[in-house]
Design goal:
alpha/beta, 2 domains, Rossmann fold, 11 strands, about 350 residues, homodimer
Chain lengths: ~350, ~350
């Protein structure tokens, strides 16, 4: 499987490359012209460095060579595998995995995420349960619903859609989810097990697990490689770094206090960027032949788009294509993997609870 | 306080330097000639590198400049602070902190450690409790004693001396210690909180906390600095890396799968070595002016010693003295800090349990 995926390249006419082309701005004219509308937390050095390298890189004729790591394709494969396993479980022991989602308030983006999760559950045969609570409900009401799902044997995974309203303490609510049903893997006990040698978490957080799955399915060696993770959030950067380290990479973490991010990233064989800064990582930040995983999904102004904006990653895709050996596009890279991993974690939970091998 | 400590240097006649001189082998003749009697897990590259650099470095006249980071002195200060706080607590609310130690089997080294811990407790006014169980006792017996200490309100810290006999599962036993009394900080829930932004562990593991305390008390800036941690054990390397990262250093972890450790360490402003390999880190591995914290305590053959061996660190002390700006000796560096931090954690626990500010 890996070899057929690997044949797709930035510039070839494979399905993956077509996806990549559809997502990528026209060569040279739009490359990395989209700048983030959020403040850059990376210090003036990084910004200067980007500015000084831009002109010289733009002058060079592009020689695209990076393979496209096709998250849409891989997530589809994973969903098929999950669906097959769910069917086998139902046929064998009559159990259907269940995922409960708690949504507080009426944020449009959260509603979309929850709707997509429900749709994805349905497609693979997971029962989904949903509770919608008003924006002004109390922490106790949320906790009450978590307790009900904790005790409900038809529910194998519980997910509280973030962000929560400001008057709630996220930590209290996430800690209330039974560790056996914490399919998001955000419980500190899970994170602790992820960090420790000789221990395994019950669940690996979905997006970091998705990044690792892409590396594994594309046969990218991790052991002994230099890996740099950009960003150190609890939900992506930090757990990705722990996973890469568990896989025996030599890991460095770059963050907003790092003085010379480019110097460090340019030593890496594998770069995972989860900074949330549009086009932060330029071609000059990447070692020739490195593998680049882009977790960022950043809206940038684009007058040519009907919506007035478009989504780009943390990596300057056009420039990276010329340097990296493999790269995930945005969208269509890590994004689709997150839901696939949520489905996979829910199945895993049901199998563990019912001791189904 | 820091300035008076900082005046001691490798070659000066301060008390700290005297300690260092007493510990260090005579210049040039013995420097780093002690090789580890344990197998090197660092690959042939590291070993070759050491061999090739050795002769050239020996030929250069030494110019010692590193300040000695005096763990014995700092740990004495911390013990005094802990003792004063315990006296205040006793006077104010009549509570005396208590530390319980469970020792299984009759390993000589473990008995020595437990004896030293009891002695240190006594010196600062902590009540110590001890249970000695035979080598062949069951896991259930150990768990029973943990449960008793968990419920005992006069006990604020519980410590299971490691290693445990082979027939016991360390994970089961350590997990049984109440998180509120886990003064060793080894519980995965504690480690998870250590890893996560916006969360704090109840207890920071003692040796890593000791390393950080030395950096803090010597006014060594961490924020924005490049830090490299060598070794990734659950009890030292990994938690030290998490702590350095929480303090906003840019952290890289070097371990047995790292192909070019010297290249990475030589970029670091702060090196913490917890590899357990005698004299692994040569002068050439260290950036001029770097701060070097040596957690290793390695026995090496020494025919001149009455015991037939001596203890050395992971860092080649003589060579490092010529390159680093500050360094911990072995012994007398990190070593004495571990027990001081255990006492500090026990006090902290008693204060938290009794809500004493």
């Amino acid at each position: 499987m890996a070899s057929s995926i690997l044949s797709s390249r930035c510039s070839l006419s494979s399905p993956a490359a077509a996806v990549a082309r559809a997502l990528a701005p026209p060569r040279m004219t739009l490359a990395c012209r989209f700048q983030s509308s959020v403040p850059m937390p990376w210090g003036s050095m990084a910004v200067r460095s980007v500015a000084s390298r831009n002109s010289s890189l733009s002058a060079v004729a592009p020689e695209t060579s990076a393979k496209v790591i096709d998250g849409k394709l891989v997530s589809g494969q994973i969903k098929n595998e999950v669906a097959a396993e769910i069917a086998r479980m139902k046929d064998t022991i009559g159990i259907v995995p269940g995922l409960a989602v708690i949504l507080v308030g009426s944020r449009k983006d959260s509603q979309t995420y929850v709707r997509n999760k429900k749709k994805a559950c349905k497609a693979v045969g997971i029962n989904s349960y949903e509770v919608n609570l008003p924006e002004d409900c109390t922490e106790e009401e949320v906790l009450k619903h978590i307790a009900i799902f904790n005790d409900d044997s038809s529910v194998h995974g519980i997910l509280v859609q973030l962000p929560l309203p400001r008057h709630m303490k996220e930590e209290n609510i996430l800690n209330a989810v039974s560790i056996e049903k914490d399919v998001d893997g955000f419980h500190p006990l899970n994170i602790g097990r992820l960090a420790m040698q000789g221990r395994d978490p019950l669940f690996v957080p979905c997006t970091p697990k998705g990044c690792m799955e892409l590396l594994h399915r594309y046969d990218i060696e991790i052991k002994g490689k230099r890996a740099v993770v950009i960003g150190r959030s609890n939900i992506v950067g930090m757990p990705v770094a722990l996973l890469l380290q568990k896989a025996n990479a030599t890991v460095s973490m770059v963050h907003s206090y790092t003085k010379n991010p480019e110097e460090i990233t340019s030593q890496a064989d594998i770069i995972v960027s989860a900074a949330g800064v549009a086009n932060l990582v330029r071609g000059s930040w990447i070692k020739p032949g490195a593998v680049v995983i882009d977790v960022g999904i950043n809206p940038v102004d684009d007058a040519e788009s009907p919506r007035g904006y478009r989504l780009v990653g943390d990596i300057c895709y056009e420039e990276a294509c010329e340097v990296a050996s493999a790269i995930t596009p945005v969208p269509g890279g890590v994004g689709p993997m997150t839901i696939a991993m949520l489905l996979s974690n829910t199945l895993e939970s049901a199998k563990r609870i019912h001791n189904f091998k």
